Amino acid sequence: MPNSVRLLCLADLHLGRSSPPLPEGLTATQFTSRAAWEAIVHYAVSPENKIDAVLLCGDAVDQDDLFFETFHVFEKGIRALIDAKIPLIAVTGNHDASVFRKLAQTISSPFFHLLGKDGKWESLLLTLNCRNIRFDGWSFPENHVSYNPLQRYHNDLPSISSTDPVIGLLHCDCPGTALSRYAPVKVQDFDGLPPLAWALGHIHKPTTLYQNPLVFYCGSPQGLDASENGDHGAHLLEILPNHEIKKNFISFAKIRWENIQLSISQTDIDNFEERLIREFSALHASFENHSPFLQAVGCRLTLIGSHSAYRQIPTLIEKMQNRVLFSINSVEYFIEHTQNYTQPSYDLKQLSELSDPAGLLAKQLLALENSLPDVQSILQMTRARLSSAQEKYAYFSQFEVSDEQIKAWLLQSGYQALDLLLSQKEKE
């Protein structure tokens, strides 16, 4: 009976990318892509994990011009795999095409394989754990590719009559639009092709797109910044004797990013930090995979609700910045950023009866909170001004802003203005 074959699949290391700012007490070098790569290599070469090959699906390096900064680190990991006689099968992405080509010229080994050079599909047949496994891969020939590489699959690869399992490697944008410059493909394009499973790179969130054939994004080994929240790592793909495919996620992230929303409405401000620690504890308990690699969790905190001690909130936020707030099972928790959407606990209905500026503002806040007819005209006016700013500054034009987000911004700034108006009246 044939043996199972175990493949460790990863993508989007982005070696060379700077680490996000960390609080005092945490060393940035602990949480780099380099550290994640070294942990993955160590896992792969450890005999107890029985890894037969490593699949790397592009963007190993953050930018082609970081060759000298990243080459040694990347090469060292590859040579460790070679020394352990574990094949590395790779394709390039939109960030690292030239680096990989230089690496392929430097490393000559039967255990290092770069597939699909020059944007042409390529097949590789390897014997792993006494079984023949075929790998089909395509690499970015340059940083931008606007065509669908799957449409060239049959033209580039001859029809092979074989019962050997086939695994596909691809860096692509799925589901990609016609305007995408990152090899746009559709999920249905994988139907009818020989691979039993497709390991993809480009999207940094681990995601399964399709079950038959199995199509999945490996995701980045750890969140590269606070916007890439949730768990990250690699995937163990196991080809069973009957050709069935099993996939298991392995968390390699040494740091992960999470979002916490906290209402202060029923919170005693004097016990705010204790309340926050309870939130950290609940978050830690919710993690499905308690990874031995995890060392820190950075949280984006959103504060909501109304409170009579509203004016003390900025001071509380300042006290939380740039320091570790909580530690559990050797995992350090800190606040990466705080969004303050809290509001003073004013009686808007009573204030709206006033004829002064505070009363007029209270009426508009009531309209926003209760979605009264006036709210649409307020949102339209705000969106018109926002569109003008987006046209002026190209960077902001790429962001789509929902009515709910505009409404949240208006409420936040409106309550701040109302509090300022009323505090001035108190001084009179």
How would you describe what is shown here?
Keywords: Hydrolase. InterPro entries: Calcineurin-like_PHP, DNA_Repair-Maintenance_Comp, Metallo-depent_PP-like, Mre11_N. GO terms for molecular function: hydrolase activity. There is one protein chain. This protein folds into three domains: 247 residues, Purple Acid Phosphatase, chain A, domain 2 (4-Layer Sandwich); 90 residues; 75 residues, no CATH class. The protein has ten helices and 18 strands. A six-stranded mixed β-sheet has the order 4-3-2-1-11-12.
Instruction: Tell me the CATH architecture of the largest domain.
Output: 4-Layer Sandwich
The CATH H-level superfamily of the largest domain is Metallo-dependent phosphatases
Assign the CATH topology of the largest domain: Purple Acid Phosphatase, chain A, domain 2
Order the strands across the largest sheet as they lie in space.
Answer: 4-3-2-1-11-12
The CATH class of the largest domain is Alpha Beta
Structural class: alpha/beta
Shape: elongated
What number is the mean pLDDT? Answer: 89
Share in helix: 25-40%
Given the structure, what is the number of helices?
10
What is the chain-wise order of helices and strands? EHEHEHEEEHEEEEEEEHEEHEEEHHHH
Straight-line distance between termini: 90 Å
Strand content: 15-25%
**How many strand segments?**
18
Biggest sheet layout: 6 strands, mixed
Uncertain ranges? none
User: How big is the Rg?
Assistant: 26 Å
